[in-house]
Amino acid sequence: MIVECVILSVLYLEEKICELFPVRIWEKFRVCLAISGGSDSVALLRAMSAIAERHRLRDNLCVVTINHKLRGEESDEEARFVQKLARNLGISAVVKNVDHVAMAEEAQRVKSLESAARNARYRLLLEEAERRGARYLLTAHHVDDQLETILFRLMRGVGLDGAYGMSVFRPLNDATVLARPMLKVTRDEVLEYLAILRQDYRTDSSNASNKFVRNRIRNELVPTLNSIFPKQWQKSLLRHVEICKNAQEALDQESFKLEQEILQEERRNALFLQTLNALDAVHNQEATNVSLPHKSIAFPLAILQQRSEEVLRVFFRRVWRNQAWSVIDMGDDEWRRLAASTKRGTTTNQFPGNIVLTYHKGCVAILTQMD
In 3D, which of 105, 86, 37, 91 has the Cα closest to residue 66? Predict the structure, then answer.
């Protein structure tokens, strides 16, 4: 009976992973596991190894660990631990070392060592996933990480699209997808799984430091919430997230409709101008026929002004991503200012990344990235 309970406990976590990351979607692809040596990632490695073994897909897996070399011998020992564990499981593993000089320069630019280290980590992870020809790059983020991420974003004043935390899948480029198959697993379930397997792991000593914001959320804010709202705040926050997600999906639909309406208007204008040219008629060059500067994009102002500011904020985020402009540099205040200015249609505005909003003859809104 005890043995059966142990088996069920082990399978429970693995089944949760298969629920979000079913074998059928990766059985024909290489899967790269981002493993740090901490409890969460070690649980991901053991679980994916067991799942792959049952389906004879062990060769689909590979492991990459990132050594930031910020904690001296401790960092090196964690990398060796991951390599040995992967080797014992019959999975190939590689260690990628972070370029300290480049990370320091980025930390100075973004004014955050935490953000710079994260960016460096993901660059190296993606680089290795691409080198291995991996379709999926897996990280071990779980429910507790999700809650901490949501708290972090809410305190920064994000919009709806940032309020519902991390998604299970996020394309990194045309070839590689970031997957988080443990987003239904709790930290307690991770520790129970490892205890049953008698699997050791490494503890990052920097996790105890409150120098980083996320550590303070985990070490100070979360325990306070647990003491005030025991076994309640997590469910309430996740319910709020679901409400935000539904609202965001509705705004996304409206944003898509706006995009299609603008494309249809542009096609109508182009056809009209072609007809005038064919007739050799005299016509005014205005509206969408304006000559645009380099690195610019134009929109018919009247159509934009028919939408609410909430829809415009979502629409402009899509524009920023399509133009490969930095979304991270735009805070909620900037998106609100952009939408409000568009509704007025009179004031020139400048935004992070040297993006300037201007207007042409009161008919066209023009966004330009200045050199």
Answer: 37
Mean pLDDT by 10 residues, the chain (371 residues): 55 94 96 96 97 96 88 86 96 88 73 78 92 96 92 78 82 93 95 96 85 88 92 88 86 91 81 61 48 76 92 91 82 88 86 88 86 74
Tokens 């991420």 -> residue: 149
CA nearest neighbour of 82 among 36, 114, 128: 36
HEC readout, 171-185: ECCCCCEEECCCCCC
Predicted TM-score (pTM) above 0.70 = yes
Beta bridge partners of 179: 138, 169
Counting every residue written for the chain, the total comes to 371
SS3 readout for the chain: CHHHHHHHHHHHHHHHHHHHCCHHHHCCCEEEEECCCCHHHHHHHHHHHHHHHHCCCHHHEEEEEEECCCCCHHHHHHHHHHHHHHHHCCCEEEEEECCHHHHHHHHHHHCCHHHHHHHHHHHHHHHHHHHCCEEEEECCCCHHHHHHHHHHHHHHCCCHHHHCCCCCEEECCCCCEEECCCCCCCHHHHHHHHHHHCCCCCCCHHHHCCCCHHHHHHHHHHHHHHHHCCCCHHHHHHHHHHHHHHHHHHHHHHHHHHHHHHHHHHHHHHHHHHHHHHHCCCCCCCHHHCCCCCCEEEEEHHHHHCCCHHHHHHHHHHHHHHCCCCCCCCCHHHHHHHHHHHHHCCCCEEECCCEEEEEECCCEEEEEECC
